Amino acid sequence: MQLKQKEEMGEVLNEVDFQQLKIENAQFLERIDERNQDLLQLKLTTGDTLQVLNCYKKRLQNTMVESTHLAREISVRNDILQRIELETEQVEQERAKAESINKKLRKQLSDYRVPDVLEYVQEKMEQEELEKNVRTWERKVEIVEVNVRYIWPINTK
């Protein structure tokens, strides 16, 4: 009954048509196999590419960590350098002050004149003579003051 309906509709397959369909089916299966081989090759290539990509990502991550570490290191070293420069300026100023004081003292030392021994002895003798005279005069003043206290009131009576 189905064959009759198909014959009426013209859908009955002839032997030639069936052979033609087998050939086309074989060709399509061949193309599918080729495409599957291409797909497998692409999957292998994709896997290799992903491995390389992951390797590069890991290297990039390590490089970024190292870059951050080096940036901090550079910052610390710049701070140290600035402190050293400030200390160098301070030391240079202190050195300049010490040098000027040293020059001043050297000038004083070069201008200093030590008297001759004979001159020194003579000056020392004069100083002792003057001190002796001062003591003598102070003694005389004390005597006069004592006399004035005791004698003066008597004479005024």
Automatic annotation (TrEMBL):
Residue ranges constituting the CCDC113/CCDC96 coiled-coil domain according to the UniProt record: 2-149
GO biological process: cilium assembly
Sections of the chain in a coiled coil: 77-147
Listed GO CC annotations: axoneme; ciliary basal body
Keyword Glycoprotein annotated: no
Keyword field: Cell projection, Cilium biogenesis/degradation, Coiled coil
Localization, UniProt: Cell projection, Cilium
Keyword Coiled coil among record annotations: yes
Stored InterPro entries: CC_CF, CCDC113/CCDC96_CC
The organism's place on the tree of life at top rank: Eukaryota
Region forming the signal peptide: none
Protein family according to the UniProt entry: Belongs to the CFAP263 family.
UniProt name for this protein: Cilia- and flagella-associated protein 263
Taxon lineage: Eukaryota, Metazoa, Chordata, Craniata, Vertebrata
